[in-house]
Amino acid sequence: MFQPIGSPKAPVTVHFDGVPITACPGETVASCLLRNGITRFRTTPVSGAARMPFCMIGHCFECLVEIKGLGSQQACLTVVVEGMNIATQAGAARVAGVGHD
Amino acid sequence: MTETGTSSSPTGAGAVAMDADVIVIGAGPAGMSAATELGAAGFRVIALDMNPSPGGQIYRAVELNLGDQRADPVLARALGRAYAAGWPLVARFRNQEGIDYRPDTTVWELRTDGTVGWQRAARGGYLRARHIVLANGAMERPMPFPGWTLPGVMTAGAVQTLIKSSRLKPTGRVVLAGTGPLLFLLADQLLKLGVKPALIARTDRFGDKMKALARLRPAALPAIAKGAGWMLNLRKAGIRTVTGVARLEAVGDDRVREVVVETGDETTRLPCDTLIVHDGIIPSIDLAQGAGLAVEWRAGDASWCPVTEQSGLASPSRGANLSAGASRIWITGDARQIGGADAAAAHGRLVGQTLAARLEAAETEALTAGPARIYARAMAPRAFIDAAFPQGQTSGDLADSTIVCRCEEITAGTIRSKARQGATDPDQLRGLLRCGMGPCQGRSCASTIGRLLSEEFDLKRPPRPFRGRPPVRPVPLCILATLESLDPELVSSEALNDKPDASGGIDSDV
C-alpha cells in the first residue's frame, strides 16, 4: 500500500501483535505499521469496524493502538523504539492489567 | 529584566511562580517566528510542540529531508522551494537563545491566566507563564461521505505527512477527491515521486474560477501562477480529471476497494487502493474553546475562528469562565485565521514583537509595521482562493446513513432525528448521542454537526460549536495521578493545608 522513497536507513525491530516487524529509526508507530502493510490498527468499540490512520497529525484518533500495554496511544505521534511492543486495539482501550472478558 | 521566578507565598494568596515569560504552543511557522522574536528580545520562552521536530505540518521534518547528507534528491525536488523556505526559519528557531524547546509534547489544557497542562510520553504537569502564544495551526475540514471511515481513505495532509516524515508514498491505484490547493499540490508532488493517480475527482468547477476573478488582486498573481503550474503538470502527465463531482463513495469490506464518483450526468466506478480526500482547511479551535475564548463564524472560508485583535490578543467568551482576569493568550498563524505558511510566519513575528514590547512596556506600532505589511500581502490571495475552491463535499446533501461522528459511529440520520425532537445546539446533541465525546473530542464531527443543524433549522450560520472543556485530549490516569507540577491555582489557594503536620503536630487532645 505504501512504498519507501529513496534508500531506507538501518532498521530497528518492533513487535506488532507479537510478530517482529522492521521500522526506520525516528519514524512514528503509524508510519512503521503502514510501511509493513498493516491496515487494521484498531477496531471500533461500537461496531467492531477496522480503522487505519486518517489524518496523521494527531486530530482524528483513528490510529489508536496499545503500546507497552497502555491503550489508546496515538500511533501517529509516538516514535518507535527498538523492541517496542505494539498491539491492535480491539474495541475500547483496556486499563493496564484489567481484561475485557 | 523580567519578573519571572516570583515565588508563591506559602499561604497561597500571592503570585504563582512563573516557569517562563511566554509559553508558545506549536512550532510551525507562526509559533517558531513568535518564539524567535521573543527569545531575541531577551525573554524566556518555553515552546511546546506535538511533533518530534520543529516546522509544523508545512515544514514537517525539513531538517531530516534537506539537512541530511543522504537527503533524497527526488524527494527534495518533489517537496519544492516552498518547503525549503522552512529551513532558515527552523534554523533560526533552533539557534535562538532563550527558547526552551520541548518536542513530542501534547497540550491538554489552556487557561486565560497563562496556565498550560502538558503531557510528554509518560510524564505530565502544569506550566505557567505571563503570556501564552497559541499557534496550534489548522486541520483539514472533516469531509463525511459514504465509506469515509474505511481503512485506505486518508486526507491529503496525511499522505503529505507520510511523504515528509516517513518517506513513504502510496502505491497501487490512487484516487484523489475533493478540492482546494493542497489536493493539487499533493497531486503534483505524487507525480514527481513517480506515483500516477488513476483519477482526480474535483468538486469544484471551471465556473467557480470565473466567479472568483472578481476577487482577484494583483498580490494574488504569484499564488495563481503556482496553481496553474500544478494544473499544467497534471494535464501534461495525462491524469484523468473530472470536475463538478456531486457524490463520492468509498466501497469496501475491511478496507477501500472501489470508489464511486458521480457528476451531474455520469457515474464512474474505479478500483482503488488509496482514496485521498481534501476539502480545505479550518483553524484548530480546540484549545481556544477549552480556554473559554470567544469564537466567531467566518463565512468566507466557512470556518470558526477565535475572536482576536490584529495583534493576536484573544477575547474571553461572555459568561462564566474557568479563569478570571484579562486574557493573556495571543493567537497566531492558521489557528487564528487560515492564511498559509508565509502569512503565519509574518503574523507570528508580529505577535512576538508586540508581546516583547508589551513585556517591556514600550511602543509597538513602529516595530510591527514590517511583519504587518508582509502579513497583509500574504493574505491578499485568500478571497480569490476561497471563491475558486468553494466547499465541495462538505456543502452538498449528506445521506442519512453516512457516519458523521467517526469515534462513536453516529450517522447524519440519527443527528437529524434528535434535532427534529428538539436538540437545537451541538452541546445538547453531545449529551444525547455522545457525538463529540469519543477520543477525538469532536474534532472530526463538530463542523458537520453545525452544518446539519444549519440545514435543519435554516440558519444563516451554524450554531456555536461544542463547548470545550479540559482535558481537550485524552490523558492517561497514571499521568494525572503523578503530575510533576500541580495545578498552580489549587496549589496557591489551598496549599494542601488540611494535611496533618508530618512533624507530629497533631492535636494532643485527640
Describe this structure in words.
The complex is a heterodimer of chains A (101) and B (510). Chain A is mainly β and 101 residues long. Chain A has one helix and eight strands; from the N terminus they run βββαβββββ. Chain A has one domain (12-90): Ubiquitin-like (UB roll). Chain A is 7% helix and 32% strand. In chain A, strands 2, 3, 4, 5, 6, 7 and 8 form a seven-stranded mixed β-sheet that branches. In chain A, a hairpin with a 2-residue loop joins strand 6 and strand 7 (70-74). Chain A starts with a strand and ends in an 11-residue tail after the last strand. Chain B has 510 residues and is an alpha/beta fold. Chain B folds into three domains: 20-139 and 282-362, FAD/NAD(P)-binding domain; 142-279, 3-Layer(bba) Sandwich (FAD/NAD(P)-binding domain); 397-473, Arc Repressor Mutant, subunit A, CATH 1.10.10.1100. Chain B has helices spanning 29-40, 62-67, 73-84, 86-95, 156-166, 181-192, 206-212, 221-236, 286-290, 341-360, 365-379, 382-388, 412-420, 426-433, 446-457, 477-480, 488-494; strands spanning 20-25, 45-48, 99-102, 105-110, 115-120, 123-134, 138-140, 153-155, 168-170, 174-179, 199-202, 241-242, 247-252, 256-262, 267-271, 274-279, 281-283, 295-298, 303-306, 329-331, 403-405, 410-411. Residues 1-13 and 498-510 of chain B have low confidence and may be disordered. Classes of the chains: A mainly beta (101), B alpha/beta (510). Chains A and B meet through strand 1, helix 1 and strand 5 of A and strand 8, helix 5 and strand 9 of B. Strand 1 (2-4) of chain A pairs antiparallel with strand 9 (168-170) of chain B, so a sheet runs across the interface.
